[in-house]
């Protein structure tokens, strides 16, 4: 069984792809060691992203996916696969492995959006507190003790 935290990280990554980068995603499939039960602390998270927007420049597409994945978790290792290749190129070993051994990750858009907005609000709140409140707290503390 795949750990819930892995699926949540993948969903967060997909949310960024769809909403910030405007990539229309057809399928998201988790595959590799995280499904085989061999997951360790240093294991990567292999994920295939299938989109009709892929297939023009695989290196550039892969680099963009890795950059965004790194914002969520550097262990996420995304592979871009065009919708056409997904349908037609079943002889390619990677596509064969993903199709035969992977599991599709379903996205509940409303639920994921709410969770990510809460996470972003917390991040912004932490920045504001660190930037503006430490001086006030120290000043208040010195007045209270003085």
Automatic annotation (TrEMBL):
<protein>
    <recommendedName>
        <fullName>Polymerase beta nucleotidyltransferase domain-containing protein</fullName>
    </recommendedName>
</protein>
<feature type="domain" description="Polymerase beta nucleotidyltransferase">
    <location>
        <begin position="21"/>
        <end position="109"/>
    </location>
</feature>
<dbReference type="InterPro" id="IPR041633">
    <property type="entry name" value="Polbeta"/>
</dbReference>
<dbReference type="InterPro" id="IPR043519">
    <property type="entry name" value="NT_sf"/>
</dbReference>
<dbReference type="Pfam" id="PF18765">
    <property type="entry name" value="Polbeta"/>
</dbReference>
